[in-house]
Amino acid sequence: MKPFLFVAASFLLAPVVRGESVTVRIQETAVIEIAGATAAYTTNPLIADVTTASAGRLSVTGHSSGTTQLMVITASGTQSFLIIVAAPSLPLRERPEAEVPLARYDGLYSSGAAREQNAFDIFTNHGTRHSEFHVLHIHHLGAVHGQSSESIASIFYRDTTPSHELTLLDAMVDLSRMTISNTQVRGLHLRLGPLELHCGYASTTMYDGFFLPAERRWVGGAGYGFDVRSTRLTPSVYGFFSEPAGTAARRGVVGALTAEHREGETLFVRGDIGVSRSVAAAGEFRYASSRDQLRAFLSYKPDDFPTLGLADLRGEHAELDWARRATNRLSITSYGTFDRFNLAALPQTIGVASLGLGYAVTGHLALLGGADVSSVRTPTTSIRTIGLPLGVTYDAPAFGLAASYRLLDNSTASRHGDALRLNARASSGRFNANVWAERQRQAPTLELIFRADPDLQLALLRLGISVRSPEDVARALRDNAALIDLGFITGVNVNLAPRRAQAGFNLGWLGSGQRSDHLRLFAVYSRDEGISTTRDSVIGTLTYSRRILAATDLYGSYSWFRTGLIAQQEDGTSVEIGLRQQFSGLPRFLRRSGTIEGFAFLDPEMRGVRGEGTEPLRDIAVTLDGSRTARTDSSGAYAFHNVPPGPHRIAAQLPASPRAFFTTPSHSETKVPARVDFGLVWAAARIDGRVISDAGVGIPGAVLSVSAQNGPPISSTSDSEGRFVFAVPPGTFRVAFTSESLPPGYSFAGQRERNLKAEPDHPQSVSFEVRAIRSVAGRAAGASEVQIESLGRTAPVDAQGNFVFRSMPSGTFTITARSVGRTVSSTVTLPAEPTTIRDVVLGTPSRVVAIAAPSVEPHEAFRVQVGAFGSPENAAAARQRIERLAMFIRLLGSRAEITHSGSTDVVTIGPFASREAAEAEATRLKAVGIDAVIVADPAR
What we know:
Blueprint: E1 21-25, E2 29-33, E3 37-42, E4 48-54, E5 57-62, E6 66-74, E7 78-86, E8 102-110, E9 115-126, E10 129-140, E11 150-160, E12 164-173, E13 183-192, E14 195-207, E15 210-224, E16 226-228, E17 231-240, E18 252-263, E19 267-275, E20 279-288, E21 292-301, E22 315-325, E23 330-342, E24 347-360, E25 365-377, E26 382-396, E27 399-410, E28 417-428, E29 431-450, H1 454-463, H2 471-479, H3 481-486, E30 489-510, E31 517-529, E32 534-549, E33 552-565, E34 568-584, E35 594-602, E36 615-616, E37 621-624, E38 628-631, E39 637-643, E40 647-652, E41 660-662, E42 667-671, E43 674-675, E44 678-682, E45 685-693, E46 703-708, E47 714-717, E48 723-728, E49 731-737, E50 746-748, E51 753-758, E52 764-772, E53 774-779, E54 785-788, E55 793-796, E56 802-806, E57 811-819, E58 822-830, E59 835-841, H4 846-851, E60 862-869, H5 872-885, H6 888-891, E61 895-901, E62 904-912, H7 915-927, E63 933-936
Parallel strand pairs: 1-7, 35-43, 35-44, 45-52, 53-59
Antiparallel strand pairs: 2-5, 3-6, 4-5, 6-7, 8-9, 8-34, 9-10, 10-11, 11-12, 12-13, 13-14, 14-15, 15-17, 16-17, 17-18, 18-19, 19-20, 20-21, 21-22, 22-23, 23-24, 24-25, 25-26, 26-27, 27-28, 28-29, 29-30, 30-31, 31-32, 32-33, 33-34, 35-36, 35-39, 37-38, 37-40, 40-42, 41-44, 45-48, 46-47, 46-49, ...
C-alpha cells in the first residue's frame, strides 16, 4: 500500500498521531500536505531535506539511501513522519542511449557514526527494457573485535520490461499488513503479469541513516491478482520460517486475500484478511470530494500471528479522519484512533478523539478552536488527558504566524496544565526561516532507555522526541518499533514534568542556478523541569551543499549536541562529508568500436516502420558524420563497420527522381552499436497553410496532422509565422488541428478539421483561425450602461459601478458612459495577443457623490486562469489534474471551475477577494508545474 498523508484543513488544531511513511528516491522531490504545518526539518539533512513552501505544504528531497525522521511543527505540537530514501530509479529525463550505461557514485564519511559509506548505481536502457544495479558498501572505522568492519547494507539488480520485473537480492516489499509490510527482503523478487513472488530473508532495518543488523528472518510466498468487474482480488500464500528469541517475529504460514476497489481520485476501498493459526484482518476506506476528505482504517492481528516482526505492530488499531469544508470560511475536522498492542513486553491501550474548528476571517487570518480527549494505559501507567485549544493563524505568501493556547486536564496531575505555542515563518527571495517556541505545564514526558550506543543516542536526540500528551507515546513507539524489536530500546518511562520548554529554528539559503550554494542551519532546545531534577537537551546542525562541476555535488554537515542533567552534561559532535558524481557511459578508451546499420524502405502507408506493406529501396545514399557514405543494396540494407565510440550523425539522401519525402526522420544522432531505418514515399502533391489569429498574426507552435483514409496521421508544427506544409502522395486527406496545442488565451474561431483532395502539381492551401481572448473591465459610477460606438457594443453597469466587455478584437477603442447628464469616456488599446485590461475608470461628476447614499467600497473579485481549451474533455482533464496535484486549493475555499466563452472552455480557480490572494494561489500552482494567470472574475 502506498503511504497516505491525510490532508485536513490548513488550520487543524487538535493533535494528530500517525505512523505513515513517505518514500522518495535519490534526487527526487515529493510534495506533501500536512495539516497546519508552519515549519519542518529532517533529523538528517544529508539523507533528505525539506522546505516549507507555505502553511501545510512541504517539499521533501532525497539525497542518499537510508531513513530519517521528518519533524513537522504545527499550531498544536510537533509531529514526526518516517522518510524512506530508496535507491534512485532510472531517470526518465536522463535515460541513457541504447547499450550506454548511466552511472552514479555517492560517498559519505561520518565521524559520529565512525563509518565510510559508498554507493554505486548503474542504469542501462535497451528500448523498452531497463536494468538497474545498486550496491551500498559500509566500512566501519570503529569496529570492535569479533565484528566485521565491512558490510553490504544494500545490493540489488533489477530488470524491467512492460511484461515483467525481476529483482535479485534486495527489494523494499510492502504487500499488505497480513504478509510483508514495508520491509527490506534480500532474495528473489518477480512480478510477471498478475503473478508476484517474493522469497528470501530480512536481516537489516534502516533507522535515520543507520542500517541496524538483525538475525536472518526467512520468508517466501506468492500472490496472483485478477479483476472481477471493478475490483482487484489478490490471493496469496506466504511462509515465515524464523522466530529469533526475544523478538516479535513468529514462524508459520499465512493465507491472505486482498480486495481493492478504486474510482479515480474520489473513492478507494481496500480489505485484507489473513488466515493462519489465527485470523487477522485490515480494511481501509478513502473518499475525497470538493468539500469532504474522509479516511478510515482498522486492523487486527493476534500476538501469535506469523510475521517478520521488524517493524510490525500486532494488536488492534482503528483510525478515522474526517474533514469538511462546511462553507467557504468554516471548516470542521475530526480525528479518532484506538490502539491495543503488545510490543516486546510493552503492552498498552491508547484511545484518542479530537474535534477541530477553523474560521477564515479573511484570506490570511483564521481563528481556531476545538476539543480533544485521550487515554493511555500500560502495566505501570494510566493517564487521561482532556484538552481545550484556542488559537489564531495568519498565513501570507512570504510570512506566516500561528499562536495557540491549550488548557489541559491530566488525571495524574494535582492541578490543571496548559501549553502555549508560537510559530512563525518568513521568506524573502532565496532565504527562508522558521521559528517556534512552546511552554508546557504539567506535561507528560517520555524517556527511552536504550543501550550505550553514541550513534543511536545522537540519532534519537536529533529526533527530538516530544511527548506533550499520552497519544504521543503511541507515535514514539511506532516510530521506534524496529529499535525495540532489535533490543536497542529496553524500556519506556512516562513521567509528569511540572514544566517543560521547547524552542527551535530552521534557517535556509537556497541559491539559484545549478552551481549555487545551499546552506541550512537548524537547532532545537528542550528543558524538562522535574520535582528534583532539570534536564536540558540542545542540538544544532549546519549543512552545506554545492554543485562544483557539471555532474559533481559536494555536501557536508556539522552537528553539536549537549544533553543530560544540569550537573551531568554530555557533549558531542559529528561531522559528515559527502560527494556525488554522475557518469554518462564508459570512458572512451574502454569502449570498443561497433556497427551502425539499417534499412531503407518504401512506406506507401506512411507508418514510419517496416511492415508487410513496405518494400526495400536500393541505391539510397546514407552518410556517416558527413564523411563516410554507403548505399543500400537490393535488400535495402546498409552498414558502417568499425565505427569508433562516441556520438555520430546518420543521414539519408532523397533520390534525384522520382520526387519523394521521408516518413521517418531523415537524420539521427546515435551511438554505436545502433540500427537506424529510413522510410520514404513517392510524393506528387502538397498541402500547406497557416494558423492565424483574428488579428492576422501567425500562431507558432500549433500542431497539425494530416491523414489518409484508414491511414496513420503525420504531424507538423507551425513555424514562427504560423505556416505549415505537408508533402503527400495524391489522394484525399483530412487536415486537423490538435486541440491540446492551442496556446493559452486562444479559442477556435472556425472548423478544426478540413477534408482536401491533393493532386499532382496542384498545391492545396488551408488556414485555421483562432481568436485571442481579450477583455476590458472597469468602473463607471452612476451610469446604467457603457458603450463602444465603433463596435456597436453595449455593456450593463452593476450596482457597484462595474462593467466588462468580453471577446474584444484588437485595436484602439473609445468607451463612453452617460451619467447625470454628463458624458465621460476613456480610450483603450488592445494588442493582437490575449489580454485583460482592468481598472478603466470613467469619471463621476462631483455632484453625484454629494447626493448619493453612503458610499460603498468597490468590490473586486479575481480568478486564476489555468487553461483555455477547445475540447470539453480536455478542460475536464485539466480540472482533474489540478484537483489531483493541488488538493489544498479546495481547502482554502476556492475550487476549479469550467466556464464557456464562445467555443472555448476556460478552466479557472476562485473567486478571490483580492489580487494578492489570487497571486498567492498562482504561485502555489506554478510550484507544482501548472501555468496560471490572474483574470477578473466574469461573475463580478
